[in-house]
Each structure stands twice: as structure tokens, then as C-alpha cells.
Amino acid sequence: MKVQIVHRKWRDDRVLPRFARHLADRLGWGLGKKPDRRADVNYWLAFYERGRFDRFDATAQAAYITHLDEPEHEPRNYRLYHETARAVDLRVCMNRADRDRIEAEFGATVAPPLPVELDHFRLRETPPNDPPVVGFSGFVYRSGRKGGELADRLIERFGDRCSFMASGRKW
Question: Which pTM does this prediction carry?
């Protein structure tokens, strides 16, 4: 089966572009900024990529449904999320809870195991009594998008029992 991964910034050194390259390298899938009419499936990595090609219907389509923005914070992404989830043949998400919710509303959805980039993140053994480490990654926006308030609530509630670490910007 010929799969084309579509991501406009697939060469960047960020999580989703690295993920796209990983899939292309490991599975022999195509990768580019545009869908391929000769592919069996075009895979939008992530859901918002389909917004640039919303009339494309030459092949089966899948989309990585990464997160749901709130309509008051990111109305465009909220709309693209729903439009893409309705339009594609298969939705790919990050966890079982999302899978169940997305599948109930939109149809066939899978939640494969997420890759851990061992060249970027080192897992280490910790003594049983060490506090758990809670990690945040990505960007924090003033609008509240991406969980800034959630991070604040977690730190306030569990700050004395957990260690918190962040990567990205504006944490």
C-alpha cells in the first residue's frame, strides 16, 4: 500500500515533522507538502494540514487528530478539527480515551502506541520513593490553548508530591 504523509514543515526539527520522517523512514511511506493522487492513502499529519487541501478527494484519507482546541481560543483550529474528523476515512489519535470519544462521534479511529524519541528523551530508572516527574512539552499561549491553566492547577495541587519539567516555550 502506498501512503503519502502530508506535512507542510516536514523538514523542521519539531515533534510532528520528526514523527513524519520517522514513519517515512521506517515504513517507506512518501512524505511531502502536498497530497499524492497516486497514493492509496494520504495521511494528514496533523488534522490542520487538510485545511490547505479541503477539496482533495482523489484517495482515501487519514488524519492525525492531535488535540481539540476550544472554540473561544482557536476558532479556526476548532473548525478544522471537526471538518477533518468528519471528512477522513480514518482518524489516528494519541490515547484510548480520545479514541473512544472521537470514534463515537466521527467513526473509525485508532490509537497506536506513541513513539518515544530516545535520541531526544532519556528514560531513567528512579528509586521507588522518588516523587513522580510530570512533563509538559510544546508551547503555552496566552489564550489558554495547550493547557497552561491545567499545568498551573496540577502544580498547585501536586507540587509538593511531584517534580515538574517542561520543554518548549513560555512555560
Answer: 0.77
